[in-house]
């Protein structure tokens, strides 16, 4: 009898929790997996204590370790993203630790509402995109942190929606990825249209590149630049395949392919097969659209980069407006292990080689450099900027901001958080509006800490941090400045006086600051500040003022 009552009470309790899980909007994982989804939060809560005795340390997991994930989750939710008690990293027997040489007299922080100040921590890109070649729609990207190309197809519709809306909230650009321009990309965030080898959204009936189709696709959309993808760090030279089951009528229409059939991106481009031909295509697109045109590539064979830089230096009439280097550590929806692990150079090495090619040709100032490959953390982003990048892209870090838990099932179509799947039940758990705010809050936090690091180095803009400020510490207390480790010559990646003055002026001018709009206010149901209540304010950097000691 007593047992029966207890059973009924338990069943009622479980039913109550199930109903709550299904109705709440904050956590996709609970909506998709009522009851059992709580295990994840329990493990997260008690994980640190458990891990002290068993399992792994905070720095062991890959691709993103626990500290990195915790920093993103806390930042995205506007929770305390500082860590207590000091570093748990091994500092004395490491193979390559990045140490930033701070200045004795840090630059003062801007006041609230000033450029680079709370709440938006806006940082414009280090250079003007398209200026060197006088493109009709030249512009300086308002944010030096932008969202990396991840197609609708690899990502779910609600995930693409959340990222684009988040971009609108914080003024970043979102690359469409190679899967074309979807309605989910149209939430007001500005776009970079990516052209992959499948030419989705810009192909003719035979699958060849069509400038006409490109113009039709981007007409009426806030596309600010075009990105030709040569390769991706996780799978260079492989192309891709979206299996038939994932080629829904919606995706087929966006890509310009047949529904229900495998959708193949070939390994290479059919529109060009040499540096000369590539530059012709770049110029045709720039002429036909007026937009700056860049390339995205992983770094392998060096001769390509040398030839590209030398050709551009010789023939100033033709050239790419930006070069986005994707590190071999970059992510993908699906790729063979050998490719993710062994093809293409890691970001720092690859970027340094590409930068060197342009610097030696004397045209590094004429090209906007961008990078991707685990750069969505303040220290890594600063390192990229010190190496000469003018912008950084974030891919998986942005996915984590909108709920990805690094389950690494993106290739199965069964992503438990609804981020990387087309399964309607799983995507139903992802609330795009709420996650857009999380994404925006993460970007603000990243920019805020990046600026705090720059000021620690005595400058107002992170692009003013030169590579001598970063030291690589090795085993047995060896150490060397980053520029020495990567073979930079004196003066490389150091902005010339005119650009330095321009960046300083940008960071001090009161004009141009975009005050947060009403969309940055409370969102009913965003539990960051209690349901229906005002969410926590975007984190100041550091959010919790350090106490003595
Ligand atoms: C699910 C997924 C889909 C991706 N799709 C594309 C794509 O369509 N085009 C592209 O250039 N890169 C694609 N990438 C690579 C990312 O844009 C980015 O270059 C890479 O993940 C490195 O950045 P990260 O370390 O910040 O993730 C994809 C990555 C992921 C995880
Ligand atoms: S939760 Fe897992 S499957 Fe989903 S996007 Fe993240 S890593 Fe991929």
How would you describe this structure to a colleague?
This protein is of the alpha/beta class and 549 residues long. It is built from 17 helices and 13 strands. The protein has helices spanning 2-23, 28-32, 37-53, 66-76, 157-170, 211-218, 249-255, 275-289, 302-314, 337-342, 347-360, 378-386, 396-401, 424-427, 432-456, 482-485, 497-508; strands at 97-100, 145-147, 173-175, 190-195, 223-229, 240-242, 263-265, 293-297, 322-326, 368-372, 391-394, 470-473, 479-481. The chain has an eight-stranded parallel sheet with strand order 2-11-10-9-8-5-4-3. Strands 1-12-13 form a three-stranded antiparallel sheet. Strand 12 (470-473) and strand 13 form a beta hairpin. Helix 9 runs parallel beside helix 11 (347-360). The relative contact order is 0.16. Residues 148-151, 154-155, 177-179, 194, 229, 232-233, 296, 326, 330-333, 372-374, 376, 394-397, 410, 420 line the site of flavin mononucleotide.
């Amino acid at each position: 009898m007593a047992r029966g009552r207890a059973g009924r009470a338990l069943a009622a309790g479980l039913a109550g929790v199930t109903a709550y899980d299904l109705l709440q909007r904050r956590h996709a994982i609970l909506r998709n997996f009522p009851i059992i989804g709580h295990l994840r939060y329990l493990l997260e809560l008690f994980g640190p204590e458990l891990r002290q005795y068993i399992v792994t340390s905070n720095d062991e997991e890959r691709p993103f370790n626990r500290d990195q994930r915790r920093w993103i989750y806390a930042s995205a939710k506007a929770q305390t993203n500082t860590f207590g008690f000091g570093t748990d990293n091994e500092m004395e027997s490491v193979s390559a630790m990045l140490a930033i040489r701070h200045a004795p007299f840090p630059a003062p922080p801007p006041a609230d509402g000033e450029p680079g100040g709370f709440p938006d921590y806006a940082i414009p890109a280090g250079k003007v995109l398209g200026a060197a070649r006088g493109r009709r729609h030249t512009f300086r990207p308002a944010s030096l942190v932008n969202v990396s190309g991840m197609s609708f197809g690899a990502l779910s519709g609600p995930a693409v929606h959340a990222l684009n809306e988040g971009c609108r909230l914080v003024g970043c650009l979102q690359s469409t990825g190679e899967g074309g321009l979807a309605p989910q990309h149209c939430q007001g965030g500005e776009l970079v249209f990516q052209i992959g080898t499948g030419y989705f959204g810009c192909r003719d009936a035979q699958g060849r590149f069509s400038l006409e189709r490109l113009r039709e696709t981007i007409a009426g959309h806030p596309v600010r630049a075009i990105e030709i993808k040569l390769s991706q760090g996780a799978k260079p030279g492989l192309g891709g395949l979206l299996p038939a089951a994932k080629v829904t009528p919606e995706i087929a229409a966006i890509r310009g392919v047949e529904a229900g059939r495998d959708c193949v991106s070939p390994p290479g481009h059919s529109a060009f097969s040499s540096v000369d031909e590539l530059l012709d295509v770049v110029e045709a697109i720039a002429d036909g659209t007026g937009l700056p045109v860049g390339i995205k590539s992983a770094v392998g064979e060096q001769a390509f980069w040398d030839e590209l830089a030398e050709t551009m230096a010789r023939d100033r009439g033709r050239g790419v407006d930006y070069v986005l280097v994707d590190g071999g550590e970059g992510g993908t929806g699906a790729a063979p292990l050998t490719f993710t692990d062994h093809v293409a150079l890691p970001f720092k090495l690859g970027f340094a080689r590409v930068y060197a090619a342009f610097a030696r040709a004397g045209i590094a100032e004429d090209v906007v450099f961008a990078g991707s490959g685990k750069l969505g953390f303040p220290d890594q982003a600063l390192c990229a900027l010190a190496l000469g990048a003018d912008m950084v892209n974030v891919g998986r870090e942005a996915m984590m901001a909108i709920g990805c838990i690094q389950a690494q099932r993106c290739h199965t179509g069964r992503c438990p958080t609804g981020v990387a799947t087309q399964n309607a039940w799983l995507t139903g758990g992802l609330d795009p509006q709420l996650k857009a705010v999380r994404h925006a809050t993460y970007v603000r936090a990243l920019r805020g800490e990046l600026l705090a690091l720059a000021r620690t180095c005595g400058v107002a803009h992170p692009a003013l941090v030169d590579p001598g400020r970063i030291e690589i510490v090795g085993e047995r207390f060896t150490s060397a400045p980053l520029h020495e480790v990567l073979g930079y010559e004196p003066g490389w990646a150091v902005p010339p006086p005119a650009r330095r003055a321009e960046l300083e002026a940008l960071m001090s001018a009161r004009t141009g600051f975009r005050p947060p709009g009403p969309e940055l206010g409370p969102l009913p149901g965003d539990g960051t500040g209690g349901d229906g209540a005002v969410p926590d304010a975007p984190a100041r950097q550091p959010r919790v003022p350090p106490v003595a000691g």
